[in-house]
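Serine/threonine protein kinase: structure, please.
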Amino acid sequence: MDVVKILLLTLGGGLEHALNVYRQLKDLQLEIVEGGNVLINGISVVGKGTNSVVFKCRPEITKNVELACKLRRGDSTRSSFAPEGQFLHLANTVGVGPEVYAYYKDIVIYRYIDGIHIDTWWREASPEKKRIVVEELMSQAYKLDKIGLSHNELSRLEKHVLIERDLPVIIDFESATLGSRNNVTQVSNGLMRLGLKPPAESLRTYKRCLCIDAFKEILRFFLDQL
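Here you go.
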């Protein structure tokens, strides 16, 4: 099927928006690939959000590279995805998030994560594997706090963390902001939704000092439950 027609059917917003996204894909020499568990007007895609549709994509020349193309919907309340690309790039500097490939006004391209949502993974995982994931996830949250980048959606881990090869990957920096340092608190609330009890007093201490000792107390509290 013609790429512009695919974009029309999945993104909405009319021909002008579809053509703008198409031009940005061509500028980056990328081609989208149909496939995924979400169906939009007969087109299978990886995911659909309030502001975006995610396709698998690949470079036109090096076809063995698997990427994700997050494309802005025509009815998106966000005027540009460039800030999200910038936040993801910043997260990458401390080893967090899928590696960003490029970003434009209507596109963010990053390494495709071949994983499953953490809540699905959690139901079958062993206590040992859960301990590894909790420690890594909390460490990533602490790294984000140290650079002052708040994800702002990590209380809902099931929507924003994928498990790939039994390790967590934080995705979707769409709502991120600079200046706040509350990722450890967000992840703690998210772990509560998975059945773990958060350490209220240690979290209050951490919020005041953002210090490593308080962080270690929080982490120890969670790991002792597994």
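Notes: The chain has two domains: 3-111, 116-223.
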